[in-house]
Amino acid sequence: MRDDAIHTQHLVPFSVYAVGLVIQAIRADTRRAITLDNLIADFGHGSANARFLMQSMADALAAELAVTGNSKIKMLFEEWRTLYGQVADMSVLQADAINQEIGFLWNGLVTQSMSGRLFVIHSYNSLLIKLLAAEIVSAYGLTTLLQPAQAMAAMLDDAALLDALSQDIERAGIFAQAGINGFVEEAIFSWYLDVACKLPHSASLVPALRSLLASLSLYRTDHLTHTRDVLRDLYQGLVPGRLRQSLGEFYTPDWLVDFTVEKARNGNWLDKRVLDPTCGSGAFLVAVLRLMRVEAGKARWDAARILDHLCTSVWGFDLNPLAVQTARVNFLMEIADLLKASPGQTLEIPVLLADAIYSPASDPAMGQDVVNYQIGSQVAGLDIALPSALAFNRIRLDQVFAQMGEDVEDNLDYAEAEARLLAADLLTPEEAIEWRDPLQYTYDQILELHRQQWNGIWFRVVRNFFWSATAGHFDCIVGNPPWVRWSKLPDAYRERVKPTCEHYGIFSKNKRHGGNELDISAMITYTTSDKWLKVNGRLAFVITGTIFKNPSSAGFRHFQLEPSNPKTLHLTPVSVDDMKALKPFDDASNHTVVAAFNKTKKPGTYPVPYRLWDSAPGSTKAIPVTMDLSSVMARVAITTKEAAPVDVAGSPWAVLTKGRYKALQALSGTCSWVAGRKGITTDLNGVFFVPVVKTNGALVQVRSRPEAGKKDIGPAKTAWVETDLLYPLVKGAGDFEACYLRLNNPKRTNEDLYTFVPNSGIGNTEYVFSEAVMNGKGLAKTKAWFSGYKTLLNDRSTYCRQMQGAPFYAVYNVGDYTFQPWKVVWPEMSSRFYAAVAGSAMVPVAGKRPYVPDHKVYFAGFDKKNPAYFLCGLLNTPMVREWVESHIVSIQVGDVFKHMRLPEYDEADALHVALAALVEKAHGEHDETKRAALVCKIESDGEVILKAWMLRPKS
Questions:
Q1: Which of 781, 907, 885 has its CA nearest to residue 835?
Q2: The whole model's pTM is what?
């Protein structure tokens, strides 16, 4: 009813289906608003619509994947897995938890269960988002088709319905009519239309589509407001939480988006071009769009000018096709009113399916006339070759690709396709000859895929990737790149991008690329700055704070975009906001920082402002995601510190109170007279670390410890063994404290542990010698002990990776230093740095032997006690603790002497001798109160020595 008159919309002939629609409308009572709660209720995993449609999709997909031979469905599924859908390795428990969250079954191959269902979830979500976008453009009066979901729901003919979905939604007809070109590019998720035309799939899939459309038709879209929160959160509501976490998918809360955008600010937004190279659902893009619109309003720009400016100045890339589509819809929401106020204007939303790391170079090398670029899986394996003059001229490339795409669909050979290009004046005769080889090479590959029924997406995919190469340069880059470790990337992708990473020199110098700990966010910081950021431009990223301290990010911390070029540009740190003490993300705990950089011709200077965030008194560490920025700032306490490299370029950053870096800088450097070492690595502690149960005067009885590790070694066993290879063990941080070895406390009631050390080194000579000793008559019982665990010992990870040629019982991190009589030890994992001295202890039957630390303990070995006690005293001083804790990751303490110099023990210096004696006394004092007083004295005396040494004349 409107103005006391009945107005009809899309009429449906009387039928059972029509009656069902009426009943559904009556039950709904009123038209529903587009809110997250409503959408999840009607279309979330728990809804009948979602279960019905996704189960139908899953059954159809499983059946198509099981068919022998090639098909378009198989191609789309494989390419989706390559471009985005590689599911990380999951434990059985993770997989079970995810299975419980998914509301539909998989009736295909078990090996495809997780990826197949994720593909279905993405396809369903993509369709829903595109249908919502169609409602938006219709609600703004941008098309002649009113309420498209209702119009399609009213179609009783199945073929007509599928054709409408194909033409209006998947081929973007409704959006083109609204003046929005290229709105639906991915085409990967349109596979459901192909199977919906086939029996038996159509019997369930078409009714499921009708049910979805009917529910959506009951929504009110004529009073839309900005729904960025709804559309951004919709994906999180549709993909199970455990599955998103296993894939590393975490979306940035609005307050953190707004804060990061503010850190990226470098003047007015209206005169800036801005890029989010990993835009996800578009939260950062929307934030910038809104800021630009405010400034444009103040400048009194008209709608057409604002619209044109936004669509040329705010860009987004993402490698996830679903994220690209979602971001385009969010972008559309921000400009729909401007488009309505600018009749006849056409635009293209600059959110692209593109790779922020592996992108076609925007400037081919001198004389390089052809650009090569690999796209797709190993199955499709497209090796694109394009003339550089065409590749980087986007308008011409679009025109040529559009024509070539039609020619592929018509199954034409290249000669006929070339003739059409000439006839359409898309190529000159000279260009046709000059460009024939690369164009035919590319065309023939896509034509072959078409002839194998693997058609439909490639020219659109290639177009997007090359469009990113022609995007030009930006004044600002902002976003939250994915946090994925190098080792977790798919093998094929790792090999593809490895040369790019090596070009920037951001890998650690060790042969395993920093133990495969480099984070992909570090790579994206470099590649995007180099390819798209203007000189003097600003980059601000939400990024992992470990890149400023961990060893594997040493290459990143050089901040040179071309290390081999003496005229390299630099990525200069401007500021860091460290939120490690908080929980900014609702569904993840991580070390979050917001880092800002400028791209400059000269290297930056240090120290850099480094702000530590914590919760204010009375506030929780976890920040509710619904809070706005001003509310968050009212509940946090921020301490401003300063950061600088502890040593040469690339070394970890020391984060210190203002002024302290200059005061402690004399400690910077590498210690030449001592080195830190890791304790032994056995990888099977329950077999190597054992208690002595009893002795018989010649042998000892030991017991295995099944509780000692994750690997099942079977029930506890006892055996008599020789004592030749047994040593007292320092197992972890709990065995000692500052200036005291708790293992020596006479009141200690814990069971003493001893470790087998079967080899004296990790070289071939030591392996041969240890094997000869073990095979001798004197160690027959010890060999029998290890032989009982031979299969498990052969499967140890460190043994398999790094101990080629070693006997099956050998351990790692062993050398002469392992057997030195005096060791200064400190924990690898601790919230506070401290050190103690471990000397020797009694081994039953064998007598005194030196302590051997486990790999959770680092140590420095000495042949004499005084240098060890002296060093221990220095390590426990407040100055050294402040320096060490300023630049190490608290759970990753290593060789502290790599970036710290200390004075060497001098027996002729009375202060040195006195400090060593005082530390030795503390180790022998078992009364906690008395020992605390000694440690306090050690701290002050040690600092006197350090300060005098730091003021010495430099030689």
A1: 885
A2: 0.84
